[in-house]
Amino acid sequence: MNAPLTTGHWLRICTVADIPPLGSRVVEREAGNIAVFRTGNDEVFALLDRCPHKAGPLSQGIVHGQTVTCPLHSWNIDLTSGEARAPDVGCARRFPVKVENGEVYLAL
Known about the structure:
Blueprint: E1 5-7, E2 10-15, E3 23-27, E4 34-38, E5 44-48, E6 62-64, E7 67-69, E8 76-78, E9 94-95, E10 97-100, E11 103-107
Antiparallel strand pairs: 1-2, 2-11, 3-4, 4-5, 5-9, 6-7, 7-8, 10-11
């Protein structure tokens, strides 16, 4: 991913077009990578790139609707809240994200 640009407390990370539909991009950082997801409806969400179950890389999961399925043990994580879908219990940290004029911004 290109070098991020900062704008106030929002960090410009990429364009929506840089995120594959039903896919993700990873923002690398020392405190833990962040997975930025794009749904089939071009909605953008950001979660800590660690499944709450066994710390699997959510960025490598399958996006369907507003959910990502962890590639390790198939836990379904709601992209809007970070919460695991029943019957599983747990939560991935969510980060505020916004899209303006096709640009994706992340608040850390």
